[in-house]
Structure formats: structure tokens, C-alpha cells
Amino acid sequence: MLLIQRRLLIHNVEYKEYIPKSAYGEEWEEPVPVNRVRVQPVNRVVKTSNGDDIQSSTLIFIDRINSSPAFRPSEKSIFIFDNREYNVVSVDEVYARGSNVHHWEVYCN
């Protein structure tokens, strides 16, 4: 599988990491910038890690090489794009040759 060309990773987003429930309820970290990703509208039903079917309206591609920082986001975290918040419902790791992740496909609603 070829690299996702940098010219296709035209978006910058912010990411708020989900903090599991605390005494104060659900919380998220402060937003951090994530550069060189691709935000794509989709209309797809995806399965969460709990096995629930969820409607996804947005797909975010994070490339292992070109995105900065490159990481696997956690479910229930939030991406901010174009002043709108998107909740992470499912993350797929896509592999090329070998055991290294090629990119992550992040389904949001």
C-alpha cells in the first residue's frame, strides 16, 4: 500500500482526549492540534468496540507518516473541525505490508 500523499491531507483539526469517568462525570483533556489529516463526510453504520451499531457521518484519516502527531485516538474522544465537534465512535487500524500501521480511519458522529 502506498503512502497517503501529503497533498491529500489538507485539513487540520483539534483533538480532545477522553478521560474515563471520574467523580465529576465525563471529562476531556484540553484540545491539541493535529495537522495534515483528511476529513471526509460519510454516511455509514459502524460497530463500536461494545458491538453497538452507530451511524457515522464523518471519517477522519490520520496517516502514520505525514500526520502530526500520528496516533490512535480513543473512542469517546472529540475532534474539532470547522468549529464543530465530532465524537469518535470507532477507530480502524489499516495495515500495509508488515506489522506497522499504515493509517487510522476514525469514524465520528
Looking at this protein, list some descriptive labels:
109 residues; mainly beta; Thrombin, subunit H; 6-stranded antiparallel barrel; two-stranded antiparallel sheet; 8 strands
Outline of this structure?
The chain is 0% helix and 61% strand.
Biggest β-sheet: count, sense, barrel? 6 strands, antiparallel, barrel
Rough shape? globular
Strand content: over 45%
Helical segment count: 0
Q: List low-pLDDT spans.
A: none
Tell me the number of structural domains: 1
Order of helices and strands: EEEEEEEE
Helix content: under 10%
Specify Rg, calculated over alpha carbons: 14 Å
Question: Could you report the average pLDDT, rounded to the nearest whole number?
Answer: 91
The span between the termini is 28 Å
Judged by helices, strands and strand pairing, the structural class is: mainly beta
CATH topology: the name is Thrombin, subunit H
* CATH structural architecture: Beta Barrel
Query: What is the spatial order of strands in the main beta sheet?
Result: 1-4-5-8-7-6
User: What's the CATH class, please?
Assistant: Mainly Beta
Number-wise, the strands total 8
Task: Give structural notes.
This protein has 109 residues and is an all-beta fold. The protein has a single domain (6-108), classed as Thrombin, subunit H. It has strands spanning 11-16, 18-22, 25-28, 32-47, 53-63, 78-81, 84-95, 101-108. The chain has a 6-stranded antiparallel β-barrel with strand order 1-4-5-8-7-6. The protein has a two-stranded antiparallel sheet with strand order 2-3. Strand 7 and strand 8 (101-108) form a beta hairpin. The two termini are 28 Å apart.
